[in-house]
Design brief:
Length: about 200
């Protein structure tokens, strides 16, 4: 299991006070300005502690992988949770594309930090940790769990301009159409405001 969870859920772990500089993006732009070959981007997919096999199947479908490659992503990392079957990386790997797969880690912070795009389940903790790191986020709502307010959370954060959301059936079209440059930064270091927001969305306020 993910024993530590996002920093804001762990009293013993400090919450980042501010977003880290977008060094990776600045380096990429500088390389392009100098006429250098742009570095391959990395996409990180996470399902948290649950099983969300539909998302893993959707993101590893040949059509989805083709779109990711066309968008410049040369690395795909899958955190597959407790799903029954984890994809074997070998069939997906080429000279220009790599796939890494794991089930659980003590912390996903390093994977999130390295990602140029995060494709995630709609868990509140994962959403907050990703947004706190200033990472572009595409939330995939689990249609089988519509009674857990996932859709309300994703929809409100989308309205506020912080993320995009879709379902497994619309993932492919979403990847083709979304413009990540339009996303607004999420105010950092404010877990109490996020908690109040969750209460409002879920009807506990």
């Amino acid at each position: 299991m993910l024993r530590s969870g996002p920093a804001w859920l762990n009293p013993g772990r400090p919450l980042a006070a501010s977003r880290r500089p977008a060094f990776r993006e600045r380096r990429r732009l500088a390389g392009e300005a100098l006429g250098l070959e742009p570095a391959m981007k990395s996409a990180f997919v996470t399902v948290g502690t649950t099983r969300f096999e539909e998302l893993i199947a959707a993101v590893t479908a040949p059509e989805t992988l083709q779109v990711l490659r066309s968008l410049g992503y040369g690395r795909l990392v899958l955190q597959v949770g407790s799903g029954a079957a984890a994809p074997a990386p070998a069939p997906f790997r080429t000279a220009a594309f790599t796939l890494d797969v794991f089930r659980f880690k003590e912390s996903l912070a390093e994977d999130l930090e390295k990602a140029d795009l995060v494709i995630s389940h709609a868990g509140a903790g994962t959403c907050l940790e990703t947004l706190e790191k200033g990472k572009p986020l595409l939330v995939v709502v689990n249609e089988k769990l519509m009674n857990n307010h996932q859709l309300e959370l994703a929809r409100q954060l989308y309205r506020d301009g912080h993320l995009f959301y879709c379902t497994c059936s619309t993932l492919l079209e979403s990847l083709k159409s979304i413009d990540l440059s339009t996303l607004k930064p999420f105010p950092p270091g404010q877990p109490e405001k996020f908690a109040a927001f969750l209460d409002r969305v879920t009807g506990f306020e």
